[in-house]
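Let's do one together. I've listed all components of the complex below, 698 residues spread over two lines.
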Amino acid sequence: MCCVALSAEDSALVGDAVLARLTAFVHVLRDNAFAIGLKETEDAAQVLGSGLGARIWPLRDALKILFCARRSDWLKFDEIFDAHWFGRGMTSIYKVSGNAVRANAPTRKMLSGDDNQTQQPGALGEQVQSGEDDDRPPPSDQLGRMEGASRAENLAETDFRKLADPDAIREAHALAERLARKMRTRLSRRERARNKGRRIDLRTTIRRNISHGGELIDLVWRQRKRKPLRLVLLLDASGSMTMYTSVFVRFMHGVLDHFHESEAFLFHTRLVHVSAAMREKDVGRALDRMSLLAQGVGGGTRIGESLATFNRWHAKTVIHSRTCVMIISDGYDTGEPGEMDAAMRDLSRRCRRIVWLNPMIGWEGYEPSARGMAAALPHIDLFAAAHNLASLAALEPYLARL
Amino acid sequence: MTAPSLTREEITTRLAAVGYIADREIAIALQLMDMLGRPLLLEGEAGVGKTEVAKALAAVHGTTLIRLQCYEGLDQSSALYEWNYQAQLLAIRAREGQAAGPVASERDIFSERFLLERPLLAAIRRKDRPVLLIDEVDRADEEFEAFLLELLSDFQVSIPELGTITAASIPRVVLTSNNTRELSDALRRRCLYHYVDFPDVSRETNIIRARVPGISAALAVQIANMVESVRKQDLRKAPGVAETLDWAAALVGLDVKNLHDDPQAVFDTLRCLLKTQEDKSRLPREVAERLLGKIA
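Okay, and this is what the predicted structure of the assembly comes out as:
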């Protein structure tokens, strides 16, 4: 299992036992979606051997700086470090966004000791290694729960892998592909210089050929900039949505596969960016990685807060001028309606269209009376039903017009 | 890894000497940069002092700071090198009718004399190990990022007419990003990473005292506390450190000794912190006074 090739010099500096723990730590980090290569591990060994390795806090900071690559890593690193090196309990590897209101937060010992093999069932590492043993009993995700919004986080993980029914996946992919093809790739009026194109960019050509003494040898062409529609999916994965989550997760995977530009987020009591996990070609692996990320799925709903988190940290990166944000939720929110209103107003100012798909619309006599839903309605461009793939397919004409 | 790397404490004191108040993590990050020879990627909101880190680093090591500001469409000819075509043409004209053969004159035309260094080439040709600041790398195109990746791993550049130029010394590279575009994993992995947050009250107090001459310690504490509570408000753009310093300078200029003495002046100068009309309307006078009342 050890995949760290360390030079003899490094091992001489640091004891074997410490190196083994470091290796285990690197594995835990990789399981948590840290991108860590061999070079980083070697460098970590060098850090351990230097003066920084002598005391624990400078060491933690140093490893944090070395191993983190983005803000999300930065936020969760301390917790993982403490859990691994001190065996401190933690409920989840993800920080809860904003002010954490946890109704029940039982501490679970997750990454205890120096070896992540010895874990309780349902804990983090086990999820990752469970690719092979498919005959283990499925985790119970049917906890007795009232339908509707709740503040509680569901600590039992929903097993997304059971969604991997080949036919259903194929269907979802076919639909997503159809949608993607229908989307017009708008050509913007702006042009940029390219190596090939329709018209010669005279100005740039002359400039570039000055080095040939003004002889036009390299031609530079102009082409119109392409701006494909970008689809950002925000899927509510809270308890009240359990019945529908499976359908939309498949759809999400299809969308990320077929659209040129798309991003996917899950939210329940917090917001999780799942694009990287869902881009995995192999469905099983994608769902594995996602169930790991989506700890807490099937619990309560804090839509307003999740949307605010989205606006604050992700909107700048994932939204551009031709972006359609698609929120899939029943609108049962435990947060303040005011919060929802503010978050939706912010969002509508940023993106081109907001589509809100509500599975409940399909129900007879449904009125969007949930407080959260009512607060969100004024900012929505299209409010439509979605309780199965067929209702998603009905969106085609609308999306094609954008 | 060539120069003896400084310890964390030395780095902190030297940074303080040049007016940069470092927190623990930044000092360790700078130490690791030297130890491992990796570039440092700084992310954080606008105004938290990312660029200042590079400036301070250059001052600490007594080297030059070479800055490359990235923008969309930035290409190699404005980042790496370019030939001085006008001078080349003039030289050719001047030599017309002279005896020198075409080969000799070509070698002369493509020589050092006509090479225009751009920041990246300048950085790797310096002998004194400069600090190379690649500012807002997220604004550059993806192609440029890929090129940067190659440069940052090999530190050599090949110029067809001149040959390969290898780095005289490996520069200390600091990259900053405002996260308008997701950077590639390859670039992220190659770099050390530090997320720069707004400074806490005690650090911000020290920053104010280091940067605003003639300010009293008590006022600096009050300003830091006030800015901290303004940042907690729901604003479109939380005020950065530069805004804090502006505000402190304004208050010193108005001869305010204590924020509680002159609430009117405080409210009038709050525009140093709030840069949009919307934020101003979100912090009306009552709210500002309430915040002011809470600080000691």
